[in-house]
Amino acid sequence: MDYITWSRAYWDEAARVRDRMDRIRKQENRPAEELARKRRLTILYEMYLDCVHTAQALERRAGLERRL
User: Fold this and answer.
1) CB within 8 A of 10, min separation 6: which ones?
2) Alpha carbon of residue 19 to chain centroid
3) Residue 34 DSSP code
4) Torsion of CA 8, 13, 15, 20, to 10 degrees
5) Taking the alpha carbons of 6, 60, 22, 43 in that order, is the dihedral positive or negative?
6) Gap between the Cα atoms of 7 and 56, Å rounded
7) Into how many domains does the chain fold?
8) Above 90 in pLDDT, residue 9?
9) Distance from C-alpha of 42 to C-alpha of 29, rounded to nearest angstrom
10) Could you tell me which of 5, 10, 2 has the C-alpha nearest to residue 56?
11) Can you tell me the mean pLDDT for 4-13?
């Protein structure tokens, strides 16, 4: 698998995680569930950032590989 294809897979996963975060934000929650909801969103946001940063790193790597 080349770096660009690999990067696209990470971008796709980032979009899925972002969509899941949006669905969680739109859900009505009781006050007792608010802490659990915030924790889920925090975990998902960290996953989202990991996917985005990895995708960007792979794109940079693909650019470096082409120059060599």
Assistant:
1) 51, 52, 54, 55, 58
2) 10
3) H
4) 170
5) positive
6) 7
7) 1
8) yes
9) 16
10) 10
11) 97
